[in-house]
Design brief:
The protein has 11 helices and 17 strands. The protein is globular, with a radius of gyration of 20 Å. The longest helix is centred in the middle third of the chain and has 13 residues. Strands 3, 4, 5, 8, 9, 16 and 17 form a 7-stranded mixed beta sheet that branches. A 6-stranded parallel beta sheet has the order 12-11-10-13-14-15, sandwiched between helices. A 4-stranded antiparallel beta sheet has the order 1-2-6-7, with no helix packed on it. Bound molecules: zinc ion (ZN) (2 copies). One zinc ion binds next to loops. The site of one zinc ion has 5 residues, from loops.
Length: 367
Amino acid sequence: MFQTTAAVLRSTAAPLSIETIEVEAPRDDEVLVKVTASGICHTDLGVIATAEEGQLPIILGHEGSGVVEQVGAAVTDVAVGDHVVLSYAYCGVCTNCKSGTLVHCRDFMALNFGGARADGTTAYRAVGEPIHGHFFGQSSWSGRLITTPRNIVKVDPGLPLELLGPLGCGIQTGAGAVLNTLNPAPGSSLVVFAAGSVGLSAIMAAKVAGCSIIIAVDPQQSRRDLALELGATHAIDPTQENPVEAITGITDGGADYSVDCIGFPAVVRQALECLASPGVCATVGFQGGENEITINQGHLLFGRSLVGVIEGDVDPHEFIPRMISLFQEGKFPIDRLMQVFPLAEINEAIDAAHHGKVTKAVVRFPS
Ligand SMILES: [Zn+2]
Ligand SMILES: [Zn+2]
């Protein structure tokens, strides 16, 4: 048993409580990680807003980075002292995992949102009571966490570890949608709706891909400004002009690609309607399991498509090192997205993320 400090969600009506908790030693197939830092993602905010009584108390957080502190007897590919970035959980043995589409693991929901290991147990305890955890196989708002080798991507110890956690969710979501799913040809045009951390990652990726027209659509001036600094060639304020008309004008008839990073029905529709024929729209924004949209089939018919993308549809073991290489080459400046808060200010960080005052809030744990 190990002791650590964690931010625990005990009520949707109260701030997270920062507590001393106990973490079990890793089982044979598990890894204990001492957390350096963790991002705050909108999926965390969604659970904070909607968690039901039976899910509480729980430790959230799923953009963790840290150092391996102990490994189970059966773990061979991860060692004590390794610097690691954590990503989503998958089983590794179902048909989709075996075919390499890890994000479509048949147990994805249970393993990432179940609040427990696959067998229903939890490695986390407060005084006298179990705490739900294993969120995305991580629960990285705990100073120590139990995860599996499948969640782990090893990184060079010379890298700034506290900035790397968001590569495992928000940043790979935006960058993967562009570089992996859409894979735009050099010289093509691409529009990003909503320039938060996911959208800005998509914009940086579009620049890496060599898109010649990159358009950011966002109502917030500071985000449009940052989008232009990070690679956007144009920025549109949707409260001032009709994005579809503006994009059609800039691209001489419609964009080749679009990425919706918010999931509002009206925005998904705009992201489709701004497309040329042919054209592809990737929707990555999450607005809950039931989120009906209306689209114009007569418009879609002319070679346009709409594809849903979770976690950038990436294998983190391949894609996180690719993003890190681009970061080291100066082509993917993720540090421009981040603001680091100490753990003691996690509730302020959550509030700042919720109100869009920061692009990507990262919480640093005491060393
Ligand atoms: Zn996330
Ligand atoms: Zn699986």
